[in-house]
Design a protein that fits this description.
The protein is an alpha/beta fold. It folds into two domains: about 270 residues, 3-Layer(aba) Sandwich (Aldehyde Dehydrogenase, Chain A, domain 1); about 190 residues, Aldehyde Dehydrogenase, Chain A, domain 2 (3-Layer(aba) Sandwich), CATH 3.40.309.10. Helices cover about 40% and strands about 20% of the residues. Strand 12, helix 9 and strand 13 form a beta-alpha-beta unit. The longest helix has 23 residues. It is globular and about 75 Å long. The protein binds nicotinamide-adenine-dinucleotide (NAD).
């Protein structure tokens, strides 16, 4: 270890390698997007030498942890889950302060992270395997699962504790060592998780944390020959780069990426429910959810009513500081997100989109990355605003003639993460569930908001590799071995 690195400063985020907290070779500031004068703290960024150190520590950790018993894995994961849940308010506050989602959303996300550790604690006790008779007399075949080894986990800023949790918990439950590289935009929640994991009783090197820029530390981790598998959540652009490196190096890879999620509203929908699904799915968490509904595909008979009821409801949304009581939508997470949002809005209007709601910046007494949610009309599904992910509180209403056109429009996208429908018809709902091209489907529910105990992921360019979360997570974090025994 490099002893010259500062280990005792008041950084909000440091690196954890082989059981030791370390500083870095450069730093950035973690700033509250609700109030830019509130500095959460400096973040110590790792360098490439520290990537080598972390991989060496994790290789050792992987050997030790692969032989741990199901009881040891249960105890560690259950203990981590217990501490997260008991500190949910404090951690939720930290999360909302650095990411900008409202405090109830922040506490909800921390609760999810704690429950995920509890879920995989149980899964560690239920390790799968099988025994079959061989085709040869007297020979037995057993099929077992083994850990993959050293896994790099690369995560985005929009779920800064839940995503690190839903990758780390199954990785540890199935006997792997991990190196977590959270987003440099909201790293303190992952750092707090790492502090909890650091005192959970895991052997040294089993869990490691590196802070750093994606094109530096992230890229070095992905390419490192000592990393056996990579689980990534983030944009499609970076996902493609990572897939190319992993393909070349023949590394197992799992990618969870963006969406352009449709919410279909049919003539027979309950209008209040449809509007509430649209408001929640499109605008809550400032639209910064991969499952956000950004295309509201509405049939002619309900179109006018839907647009006017949605704009009316948008006028009542309270935008403000994420930690203030009553705030329904906080700020965007960064200047980069704000520039992206404004860029897409400007281009959409140049291309002829009409502004049904939105426009001026909201009047907020703090300096932060605040925007007013936007509802566009008069766009078609081919326009750029309906093809690319904005990742902000912006949705277009696309008018269609009937259910069949709505379904075709919903499917006409590169992405296929989540799709929703609001209808009173069970037959239409059943047909939609069958024919829509998405990994997740919601009937009379917002497209965003999922359970932690079932698989999560998409189709087409939203996801690549095996599913995350729920029991299927075992596919990514283990490999199969088939053993034959003769008497
Ligand atoms: P991003 O792709 O910019 O960054 C994600 C992570 O990758 C960060 O940790 C970043 O530092 C790292 N990274 C960047 N370049 C890298 C490289 N060359 N090599 C290795 N790592 C690199 O994404 P973001 O802006 O942090 O997150 C927003 C995106 O995440 C959106 O597209 C959203 O839809 C997606 N997302 C998807 C899911 C899902 O489960 N499908 C969930 C949340 C967010």
């Amino acid at each position: 270890m490099n002893k010259t690195r500062d280990k005792n400063s008041n950084f909000c985020c440091r690196n954890f390698i082989g059981g030791e907290w370390q500083g870095g070779s450069s730093e950035i500031l973690n700033v509250n997007p609700s109030d830019l004068s509130d500095i959460i703290g400096p973040v110590a960024l790792a360098d490439r030498a520290m990537v080598d150190e972390a991989v060496a520590a994790a290789s050792h950790g992987a050997e030790v942890w692969a032989t741990s018993t199901p009881q040891q894995r249960f105890d560690v994961l259950d203990g981590i889950g217990t501490e997260i849940l008991s500190r949910r308010e404090e951690l939720g506050k930290l999360l909302s302060r650095e990411e900008g989602k409202t405090l109830p959303e922040g506490i909800g996300e921390v609760t999810r992270a704690g429950n995920i550790f509890k879920f995989y604690a149980g899964e560690a006790l239920r390790s799968e395997g099988g025994r079959l008779d061989s085709l040869r007399p007297g020979v037995e075949v057993d099929i077992r699962r083994e850990p993959e080894g050293v896994i790099a986990l690369i995560t985005p800023w929009n779920f800064p504790i839940a995503i690190p949790a839903w990758k780390t918990a199954p990785a540890l439950a199935y006997g792997n060592a991990v190196i977590l590289k959270p987003s440099e935009i909201a790293p303190a929640s992952a750092n707090a998780l790492a502090e909890i994991i650091a005192r959970s009783g895991l052997p040294e090197g089993v869990f490691n944390l590196l802070h750093g820029r994606g094109d530096d530390v992230g890229a070095a981790l992905v390419a490192h020959s000592g990393v056996n598998a990579v689980s990534f959540t983030g944009s499609q652009k970076i996902g493609r780069k990572i897939a190319a490196v992993c393909g070349r190096e023949m590394k197992k890879v799992q990618l969870e990426m963006g969406g352009k999620n449709p919410l279909v509203v049919l003539d027979d929908a309950d209008i209040d429910r449809a509007v509430s699904c649209a408001i929640d799915g499109a605008f809550f968490s400032a639209g910064q959810r991969c499952t956000a509904s950004s295309r509201l595909i509405v049939t002619e008979g309900i179109y006018g009513k839907f647009v006017s009821a949605t704009t009316e409801a948008m006028g009542k949304i309270r935008i403000g500081h994420a930690l203030e009581a009553g705030t329904q939508i906080g700020p965007l997470s960064s200047q980069m997100q704000m520039d992206k949002f404004n860029g897409y809005l400007g281009r959409a209007r140049e291309e002829g989109a009409k502004l049904a709601f939105g426009g001026p910046e909201p009047a907020i007494s703090y300096k932060g990355y605040y925007v007013t949610p936007v509802l566009l009309t008069d766009t078609d599904n081919d326009s750029r605003i309906n093809r690319e992910e904005v990742f902000g509180p912006l949705a277009s209403v696309i008018r269609v003639a009937d259910y069949e056109t709505a379904l075709q429009t919903a499917n006409d996208s590169l992405y296929g993460l989540c799709a929703g429908i609001c209808t009173a018809s069970l037959a239409r709902a059943a047909d939609f569930k069958n024919r829509v091209q998405a990994g997740m489907v919601m009937v009379n529910l917002p497209t965003a908001g999922v359970d932690y105990h079932v698989p999560f992921g998409g189709s087409k360019e939203s996801s690549f590799g095996s599913r995350e979360q729920g029991r299927p997570a075992i596919e990514f974090y283990t490999k199969l071995k088939t053993a034959y025994t003769a008497p």
